[in-house]
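Q: Sequence in, structure out?
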Amino acid sequence: MADYKDRMQKAIESLQSEFGTIRAGRANPRMLDRIKVEYYGTETNLQGVANISVPDARTLMISPWEPSMTKEIEKAILASDLGITPNNDGKNIILNFPELTEERRKELAKDIKKKGEAAKVAVRNVRRDANDSVKKQNKAGELSEDELKSEEEDIQKATDKFIAEIDKLVDSKTNEVMTV
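A: Exactly. Output:
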């Protein structure tokens, strides 16, 4: 049972990580987590080649450790799904995030709900695997009918708990995005 709970928890952690990359009015360095930069022939996380700071609520400043990386970082940002054009001052790359429009906020809210549903599906798949496992144990004679019912109830309780947590995360992130 602990293995299945760990897998359900991983679905929630993955959802939280994805939510960290969604912009909600403020500039957040985690938005750049998915950006990879070509560094001496190797795909490297942006954090591995530069320092990222937040000078104010709507700005991210990327300071490459090697000045030669500026162009590569700029190219990676343009190729990403951020939708932001980087400003290069020669040493640093500055990302200015405009105010979110109402339409964009609604799009982000829909995207948040989709990601939440995907996480729920992942949790339900773990529940299915757990139920299959206990049914196999029952058929093999390792569990009695009473133990089977008890295990299935425990699995359902865990599933309900994790789905409620996902709903809370989705509501929280949606409110964050919709707040002007």
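Residues 6 and 156 are 15 Å apart (CA to CA).
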